[in-house]
């Protein structure tokens, strides 16, 4: 079971009872992230049907499903890397709406953009393809965000960057360029880069899917440790064992919609045929 | 007046006028370098304009690129130097007219070099930059542009060589570049073979130097890449 700081409730007197009590063993906790009727379309193609989702502080929610099911799209809507087409994303008490089209005069969108930039400082994201910056060393990769968004001095940022690299076990690679790093090491840099900003929420988009099999366990361990420390996490993954172990709740998506939603316990006997078929196919492959 | 038999290559005549040739060469390189600076400065906003989501920026930028690439350099030179002066639009010194002609016609090409280089930076890089809260400006300055420049160096080097060679055309408006000097001596001494050969060799040498400088720049921008 995930460890949660006992003080969480006391710190948050405004915590309201959550709608879905059955999903957490603990008592009511404050909602950190809420998606209300969020959709995403590319042109006429709707890749994400209206979706509601709630993530409480300290909770780990895993999203599973076949490729093309809208898992990544959902994740990318959260921090507006791919802005939703309709719906509302509420994060840490602030509502964010789909951006208006300011194509003619982009300057009109500047204020909203600034809000989103501040929001993204609070949400770390880890990508399947790592997306480390190839022209910067590991340390510079981590320090960049600190310098540009937290206003840290070069010395402060470098020191913090080294500490973050230490935590993910690659402090000795601080001055190495990504090209010389293995996939696992690159992903560690990417995780350190996200954690350096002390995010309130971490998004993992198939963080281990592009890794060689022997490197997967190391990254999953870092994610387990993060969960144990109480980090709120929204994780798109194909690693079922990790999901069953670590998640407080699981979400199964298919064809752009949430098909099933429940605790790992409930997912041992899924209600929907589609979920059963998917889990079977994964188990057969693994 | 030369005592060298007809048909032999008279190196003496070249060395005798090497001062004028090198002086001309210096001017050629100077104009090409300044022209290149103009292309580098004007090309970037044109590229960004072309890539903008706003038609208010995209359309004028595309029009400028089309004109800059479409008008032949020689016509551009005549227009900037003679045609504009005749209508009292503006009147420029030959040197300035030369730099602008090379720079503005080159900017059209440079815009395309920037644009393709910027497009070649994977989208994941922009996403990762946005995900750590960087503003679009910071993402561009610190993440996208440094990676794009690396891709842009080789074609930009090509453009610089084009400008270097294009500078020879400026002799038509009386810029005393190397070709101009070579032509004077060639006519004067009736030794076109020696002088034009020398001029060609000198330009080739400059392009080789420029190529190795570009190689160094590329290596520096590629530190970290294998």
Describe, in plain words, how this protein is organized in 3D:
The complex is a heterodimer of chains A (286) and B (226). Chain A has helices at residues 8-11, 71-78, 110-121, 138-149, 154-167, 183-195, 213-228, 240-246, 264-267, 273-285; strands spanning 31-42, 45-56, 60-64, 86-91, 94-96, 123-126, 201-205, 232-236, 249-254, 257-262. Chain A has 286 residues and is α/β, with parallel strands linked by helices. A six-stranded mixed β-sheet of chain A has the order 6-7-8-3-9-10, with helices on both faces. In chain A, strands 2-1-4-5 form a four-stranded antiparallel β-sheet, with helices on one face. Chain B is flat, with a radius of gyration of 21 Å. Chain B has helices spanning 11-16, 18-51, 55-70, 73-86, 94-120, 123-131, 136-166, 178-189, 192-221. In chain B, helix 5 (94-120) crosses helix 7 (136-166). Chain B is 79% helix and 0% strand. Chain B is mostly helical and 226 residues long. The relative contact order of chain B is 0.15. The chains are: A alpha/beta (286), B mainly alpha (226). The A-B interface holds A 79, 81, 103-106, 113-114, 117-118, 120-121, 123-125, 127, 129, 131-137, 144-145, 148-149, 177-179, 190, 193-194, 197 and B 52-56, 122, 124-125, 127-136, 138, 142-143, 146-147, 150, 221, 223-226.
Please provide a brief summary of the model.
The complex is a heterodimer of chains A (about 290) and B (about 230). Chain A has about 290 residues and is α/β, with parallel strands linked by helices.
List keywords for this structure.
heterodimer; A: 286 residues; B: 226 residues; mainly alpha; 9 helices; 79% helix; 0% strand
Shape of chain A: globular
Structural class of the helices, strands and pairings of chain B? mainly alpha
Residue share in helix of chain A: 25-40%
Strand content of chain B: under 5%
Biggest interface, chains and residue tallies: A-B, 35 and 29 residues
Major beta sheet of chain B, specifics? none
Biggest sheet of chain A, in brief? 6 strands, mixed
Distance between the termini of chain B: 59 Å
Quaternary structure annotation: heterodimer
Poorly predicted regions of chain B are none
Give the averaged pLDDT of chain A, no decimals.
Answer: 89
Task: Name the average pLDDT of chain B.
Answer: 91
Low-confidence stretches of chain A: 1-27
> What structural class do helix, strand and pairing data of chain A support?
alpha/beta
Distance from first to last alpha carbon of chain A? 24 Å
Gyration radius of chain B (Cα, Å) is 21 Å
Percent helix among the residues of chain B?
over 70%
**Beta-strand segment tally of chain A:** 10
Q: Which outline of chain B best applies?
A: flat
